[in-house]
Design a protein that fits this description.
The structure is a homodimer. Chain A is of the alpha/beta class. Chain A has seven helices and twelve strands. A five-stranded parallel beta sheet of chain A has the order 2-1-3-4-5, sandwiched between helices. In chain A, a hairpin with a 2-residue loop joins strand 8 (149-152) and strand 9. Chain A binds chain B through residues 90, 93-94, 96-97, 100, 103, 105-106, 108, 112, 114-115, 118, 121-122, 125-126, 172-177, 221-224, 227, 231-235, and chain B through 9, 90, 93-94, 96-97, 100, 103, 105-106, 108, 112, 114-115, 118, 121-122, 125-126, 129-130, 133, 142, 144, 146-149, 151, 154, 156, 160-161. The structure holds a DNA duplex.
DNA sequence: ACAAATGTGAACGCCATGTGAACGACGGCG
DNA sequence: CGCCGTCGTTCACATGGCGTTCACATTTGT
């Protein structure tokens, strides 16, 4: 665990895992980024600078599950970590599917040092210049990912944590059908072990809070799972 | 200049230069993206679809100056082209500096096809969720495998699970004849033990839902089984 | 014309889902 | 320290959709 002395305008970058891979360390140091390695979510909060993390570089080729779990945790914080850059091997490209929300950019490993540097620079440029209110919008539904608030047809929804996460995931992939097992692994977490009926109950409560008029935003596809919204082509 | 035949939910993607590199063409086609190659800004406006470009993939390793000029032009338009993906060689990484505003993401060339596909998917997801869906198409019939929805001549079909699975399997092998036993093992499952007449009933209900006009999409081959669509050697 | 194969209508019965309620973990508060 | 409210999870029960089956009608091939 160490930090580059080169003065950087940004806050230190979170690096996973701990200890960080040698080539990653070298590139970060040469590029003048301050960084700190952490091993898990606990370390991420424990070693967080007072002014928050400046970003994150998560290396997923040694411990994929831990890496994705950390990404999920970083995004769920009160102050989400700004740019999350994923470092994966070519064989893991398939794992990115349905995890679009977990990262801002990725880089294949082994990487060209200057490529990683260019990606970091670009991501920091984007997050510094463009202040984009992170919203998920689908017709009458609006989710504000920063404030954890939800609006249905302008009316505020009072959602619990899990309800919000489930609705967020579904609304981010409108029209697509998910099995209960998929929802459990993507929303609850990879290592979740529990009954699939839990999903049903959360769907029921979401429908109730959406109100009679919008309850059908979440449709059940019998013997498959659930789907949010209409398909893009249905008319 | 050409376009992928796979129907995509998104608008066609602008590709530079014209003609487009062979490996890029192959990846775009395999990934199911519709695209059009243009040689300059003039071509970009001239060949623009009515609903605008769905994005852009700009290859900069042959004509860097023309590529960056096009990027700048695309961003200056009244309706800026949504995700701009830059394709550059490793030696050109330095050129990216001070051009952060010209692109949304980049990919090193020569590229891993699946990396380019993943980047395109991620960028399209960020810009509004328009991703190309897995489709099974046969003339008037379209099956969306992600949403579990079916269209016949533009009209939505309300199918049950087994009906959908059976139709999907048949439509995936148009023209081929399957015995009831084969269908039972491939659609219902290997260990299935039940009457073969079950297939008949499902075929009947499918025909009914397809409507009088399209009922003959599923043809019965006497004393053999069923076939979807026209036979390959029939006139 | 006869038998085999397939279409047709209806009924049965299981299982996936909806529904209500309770349990237990966790955190705040007096 | 103990009470209480919240929230995620789980269980038991109800129900209705849907897959399956059967009996009978119709068609097809020889």
């Amino acid at each position: 665990m160490s930090a580059a002395d080169t003065a950087a305008a940004t806050e230190p970058v979170l690096v996973f895992p701990d200890p960080a891979p040698a080539d990653l360390v070298q590139t970060l140091d040469l590029s003048g980024f301050a960084w700190k390695a952490v091993g898990d979510e606990l370390g991420a909060t424990r070693h967080e600078p007072d002014s928050g993390w400046g970003g994150a570089v998560v290396c997923a080729d040694t411990d994929p599950e831990g890496a994705f779990a950390l990404c999920r945790a970083l995004r769920r914080r009160d102050a989400p970590v700004a740019p999350v850059l994923l470092l994966i091997s070519g064989a893991q490209l398939g794992e990115l599917e349905l995890r679009e929300d977990l990262y801002d950019d990725f880089c294949l490993s082994p990487f060209h040092p200057r490529e990683l540097e260019a990606r970091l620079r670009h991501q920091f440029w984007r997050s510094g210049g463009g202040v984009q209110a992170e919203l998920v919008e689908y017709e009458p539904l609006v989710l504000n990912l920063e404030t954890y608030q939800a609006l249905i047809a302008g009316r505020p929804l009072d959602l619990t944590y899990m309800e919000y996460e489930l609705l967020k995931f579904l609304a981010q992939h409108p029209g697509k059908v998910f099995t209960r097992e998929t929802l459990l692994s993507r929303v609850w977490g990879y290592e979740y072990y529990g009954g699939a009926r839990t999903v049903d109950v959360h769907v029921r409560r979401l429908r109730a809070k959406l109100g009679e008029e919008y309850a059908n935003l979440i449709q059940t596809v019998r013997s498959v799972g659930y789907r949010f919204g209409q398909s893009r082509w249905a008319g």
